[in-house]
Specification:
Blueprint: H1 3-20, H2 29-41, H3 45-58, H4 63-75, H5 79-87, H6 97-109, H7 113-126, H8 131-143, H9 147-160, H10 166-178, H11 182-195, H12 200-212, H13 216-229, H14 234-246, H15 250-259, H16 268-280, H17 284-297, H18 302-314, H19 318-328, H20 336-348, H21 352-365, H22 370-382, H23 386-399, H24 403-410, H25 418-429
Helix pairs in contact: 1-2, 2-3, 2-4, 3-4, 4-5, 4-6, 5-6, 6-7, 7-8, 8-9, 9-10, 10-12, 11-12, 12-13, 13-14, 14-15, 15-16, 16-17, 17-18, 18-19, 18-20, 19-20, 20-21, 21-22, 22-23, 22-24, 23-25
């Protein structure tokens, strides 16, 4: 807490202590304005109302507290009474910046954007400190989805700010993204980088624009500079990880993803990506550990359950894998290969009938899959359901006559059964 902030809190406490004692000592206009603003900024509107009553009792002719009354009504979304208070100012409103801003806010609420912007432009001309007004102009354009105009105001705002505000930078990047002004965005952020060369957010946003332009080398350069400016800038590490993973540079991706992990803002998705890479590298135990962490952080990441099931299956932990497969069985991400893995787990745990049920469902779901039909036919033969198995196998061979070779590879033990061999030969001749 700064010394200035502590002074404000001390002043507010002194005022509140006096009120509790049932007395109202003298406070000058400046101190009372500070107290009123504190309540406004902290959303303590009831206390603000009381303090305004006291302020107007001590200073009945003070213009500033009449303005604060207007701001209070606007904060309470009581635009009707705010407008009444403005009318009572008898024309002085047109020359007062805060009242013009208040009027603009009311106009925006009423849907009169043009009049609101005209008032804000007027306030901008009167103001020696235009930053707050420009933010109001930005908000007005954003409320209408006018991202190009908002971007122009934000660019001016950022140029004026002594210390660049993260919110303004994010808004500027978002607007330029919406308008697809990527080249312009790079130019703007290059200029802002000259102003603050060690601002990691500037480098990061520049990197995102290079990505939009499909220039990955320039993006990597910008994201790397972001991490140089701030070695805890997790978003930049994540983007580096994503680029490396897409280019199959798995070790580099793994390193970047691990650096992107934030204790303050944990991400299940980051651990999921790490797990996927570990899985691809053959480190199944590490992959399982990362998937477990991901699920703990974000239990609704269904893709993680599917990948964890595949890892558990590969580790011969079939019963655990089955529980994960059950959870995501109906998800769109479930593939034919996943069905085969699921069935494999059921077979390994001697759940043949359940495996057949799953296969029946999957054949209907993946109508064009000859592979699933062959597997279903094989297990139906294993349960002596020869008629149904023969029909399904026959349908498969009509689609792809060469599928007989795949069937023999799947079920070599069935080929030694003379009855099945005869059925297979008959189906091939037909």
């Amino acid at each position: 807490m700064s010394f200035e902030d502590q002074e404000v809190i001390t002043l507010v406490k002194s005022y509140e202590s006096s009120i509790e004692d049932g007395r109202l000592p003298y406070f000058d206009v400046e101190d009372l304005e500070t107290i009123v603003n504190y309540y406004l900024d902290t959303g303590s509107y009831e206390k603000m109302k009381v303090s305004l009553t006291d302020a107007l009792e001590l200073h009945p002719n003070s213009f500033v507290f009449k303005v604060k009354e207007i701001q209070l009504f606007i904060a309470l979304k009581d635009f009707k009474h705010a407008q009444i208070k403005i009318h009572l100012l008898e024309g002085l409103a047109d020359q007062h910046i805060e009242v013009l801003i208040a009027q603009a806010t009311i106009m925006l609420h009423q849907g009169n954007k043009e009049k609101a912007l005209a008032m804000l432009d007027n306030a901008l001309d009167l103001s020696d400190e235009p930053v707050e007004i420009l933010q109001q102009i930005v908000d007005a354009h954003l409320s209408q989805g006018e991202y190009g105009y908002a971007a122009a105001a934000l660019e001016r705002l950022c140029d004026l700010e002594d210390d660049l505000d993260d919110t303004s930078l994010y808004q500027l990047a978002l607007c330029l993204d919406f308008t697809h002004d990527f080249e312009k965005g790079i130019g703007i952020f290059n200029r802002l980088i000259e102003k603050e060369p060690y601002n990691a957010l500037l480098w990061y946003q520049k990197g995102t624009f290079w990505l939009r332009k499909n220039n990955e080398s320039k993006a990597i350069e910008a994201f790397t500079w972001a991490t140089t400016a701030d070695d805890t800038f997790h978003a930049a590490y994540f983007e580096l990880g994503r680029i490396h993973e897409e280019k199959n540079r798995l070790i580099e991706a793994l390193t970047a993803y691990r650096l992107s992990i934030s204790e303050d803002v944990p991400s299940g998705y980051v651990h999921f990506r790490i797990g996927m890479i570990e899985q691809e590298l053959g480190s199944l135990s590490e992959a399982l550990r990362e998937f477990n962490i991901a699920i703990k952080i974000e239990p609704d990441l269904d893709d993680v359950f599917l990948e964890r099931a595949n890892v558990l299956n590969a580790l011969d932990r079939h019963m655990e894998a089955i529980e994960d497969y059950k959870r995501v069985w109906l998800d769109e991400s479930f593939t034919v290969e996943d069905v085969i893995d699921y069935v494999e787990c059921l077979i390994e745990t001697e759940q043949l009938n359940n495996a057949i049920k799953i296969l029946h469902n999957a054949v209907s779901r993946f109508e064009g899959s000859v592979q699933l039909k062959l597997v279903l036919a094989g297990y139906l033969f294993a349960t002596d359901e020869y008629l149904e198995a023969s029909q399904i196998l026959g349908d498969s061979l009509k689609i792809d006559p060469s599928a007989v070779i795949l069937f023999q590879e799947y079920f070599p033990e069935l080929i030694s059964n003379k009855e099945i061999t005869s059925i297979l030969a008959l189906l091939q001749t037909n």
